Amino acid sequence: MLKSACLILLATVTVAASAAERPNVVLFMADDVSWNDYGCYGNTAARTPNIDALAANGIRFDRAYLTASSCSPSRSSIITGRYPHNNGKAAELHKPISGHLPWFPETLRDAGYYTALSGKHHMKSTTKRPVPFDHVDGGKNKNNSGGHANWVKVTEERPKDKPFFFWFAAYDAHRGWDSDKQWDTDRYGPMHKPQDVIVPPFLSDDAATRDDLASYYNEVTRFDYYIGQVVAELKQQRVLDNTLIFVMADNGRPFPRAKTRLHDSGMKTALVAHWPAGIQHTGPSVSLVSVIDLAPTILKVAGCDVPETMQGVSMQPLFDDSSAGIRQYAFSEHNWHDYEAHGRSVRHGDYMLLKNFRTQLPLQGPADSVRSPSHEKLLALKEAGQLSAAQQDVFLAPRPEVELYNVVADPHQLNNLAGNPAHQKQQSELAAVLEQWMDETGDSVPEKISPDTFHRVTGKPLPKDERDETGAITPGQDRNADQINAAGPR
Question: Residue ranges under compositional bias (Basic and acidic residues) (predicted)?
């Protein structure tokens, strides 16, 4: 009897010790920020000292890609570890994830983690199910509508006897630039100057566009400030070393030829990982990763089983060797976001192949971008017949069915190599891989998908009687893709 009691006591102590050693996890997510708008990724104008410090002492992933450059489909994909069309209706903006699919925070909570979401949520289910977070708040107060007002408080007030997972999601840098009205120089430093911003070649370099970009940079800096505040609190609590921190964004900047695009300006994300106790090899990593790899990674480091529904792979090998390869291909989708669209892309090595299934339509960006000063300046240049080739791409229709880019030699993807005999081998191989992925994961190109709900020139909502949604279905719906767990080529 005494021996049995001792064994039970020993088992209890062992479980308690194991629970205490399990890492905490914090996922910081910006809203609408492109990969190259952080200091650690080479932007000399945007101030991100706290993110830069995490990158300097962790891993800066230089080839990290989203599955969708669209808010809710991207977040839904991250939280389920699945491609957008495999999440059911959630392939499109504002639509719910199929109810039978697990979200990784609920697996963590079942394993004894304290889970909290503070800031932008933007995810929902087709069924009534328990929220997978012990704490949820919108992250706002009267002086801060950026989504990060409560991050430090949540960190301070967490239960101290449990490991924790925090989903800290800002509204920065979503338009309308509320940080300008709420700016605190003592906290954030001086506002960014329009003359200092970096104007990409597909935008107009003029005063209005520079003002627009400066306000956007302010949002990025405010996001960075609150990351620094949380890191300081974790350090004060002496838990920073055993906390795995990820910093990323859900999609590209809300400017023309960025947000919703399959090109790097929309689909590539900054991704920084920091975990002193668990990352053995720090520095930049050129290993290809997809954001669907985050869910299995977090579950693995927490000692949890990864549900069979998850299509990503664990990034853990990269924590020991940042040059280790975990995948050869990264796939992305462009589905409805304010406007009818259907496109797919695959990345491998130095190349990205994009296939457009709605070639008759321009890719001018979402409605909030269309209403922006930056877009208005491009429209003025268009009317004057003064657009450069890079700027013309915002309005191009019909578009090429296939685009192929060397993303190293052509970082803005302005030189389409599709049809070039010198690159036929890469085009053929990537086209075959993309077709295989679509087939194995149950993707489809429905004859009728969700139509435009905003005017393509003004960005204003279309009257309901001008929206014919009869018979429209989401990609993969006709193939029951939400029931398919196959990941396709990896």
Answer: 131-140, 445-455
Which 8-state DSSP code applies to residue 182?
A: T
pLDDT tens readout for residues 189-219: 999 999 999 999 999 999 999 999 999 999 9
Domain boundary among 304, 324, 344: 324
- Three-state DSSP at 267 gives helix
Instruction: Encode pLDDT of 329-356 as tens digits.
Output: 999 999 999 999 999 999 999 999 999 9
Count of domains in the chain? 2
Domain boundary among 300, 324, 348: 324
Check whether residue 356 and residue 471 sit in a common domain.
yes
Residues (pLDDT < 70) of the chain are: 1-20
Please name the residues in contact with 101: beta carbons below 8 A apart, sequence gap of 6 or more. Answer: 80, 82, 87, 88, 309, 482
Which of 97, 91, 60 lies closest to 79 in space, CA to CA? 97
| Residue-number span of the structural domain to which 428 is assigned | 332-483
Burial class (CB in 10 A: 0-12, 13-18, 19+), 11: exposed
Strand 289-290 and strand 283-285: pairing?
unpaired
